[in-house]
Design brief:
42% of the residues lie in helices and 17% in strands. Strand 4 and strand 5 form a beta hairpin. The relative contact order is 0.21. The protein binds thiamine diphosphate and magnesium ion (MG).
Amino acid sequence: MAIKPEDALRLIAEARGGAICVPTMTTSPAWRTLAPDDLSVTCVGFMGGASALGLGLALARPDRRVLVLDGDGSLLMQLGSLATIAGARPRNFVHFVFKNGVYHTSGSQEIPGGLTVDFAMMAKAAGYRGAWSIGELDDLRRRLPAILGAEGPVLVELITTLANETPMTARGGVPFPQQVEALRIKLRSV
Ligand SMILES: Cc1ncc(C[n+]2csc(CCOP(=O)(O)OP(=O)(O)O)c2C)c(N)n1
Ligand SMILES: [Mg+2]
């Protein structure tokens, strides 16, 4: 029971509407292809920072949804972010965690606990308004509209296989400062 990450990202890209998206790690190369030139800013170097970056954007732009496309190892590295986000209560914040059980980008070392860590339970315990675990593509397809419309902060643990590409195998992309500047300009005009 696991979803191909590219399939999950495709569904999210189709359903995201005007949401700002914050991909990181192995979600970032696929997202670059699936959602070029949309309202995205990628978190690559600063491991564990995607949800904090997303929180800042969500608080700054309460008129828009913010979708964070996080890695399991990354979230574990900055687990306190769950409590920070829950405490800030951003209604427009949706946190997807791509749970593949490994640090794929740095060579597929197993994360602490492997696949046994339950991120949905952790998010609920931290105070997220809702949190669910999904391991079937059809289930994600069926539930995505409600998830994207839910009052945040909410978290969805997606149980996934390994992505086709990592930031190491598919290098490139726009440098972070330029992405931020481009997002700033786009958000001014939309
Ligand atoms: C503080 C810090 N430690 C280590 C790294 C090296 N590093 C880069 S990517 C990565 C693994 C990311 O794993 P995960 O968040 O699970 O994403 P995945 O690659 O599995 O999608 C690591 C350890 C880093 N960038 N920053
Ligand atoms: Mg991982």
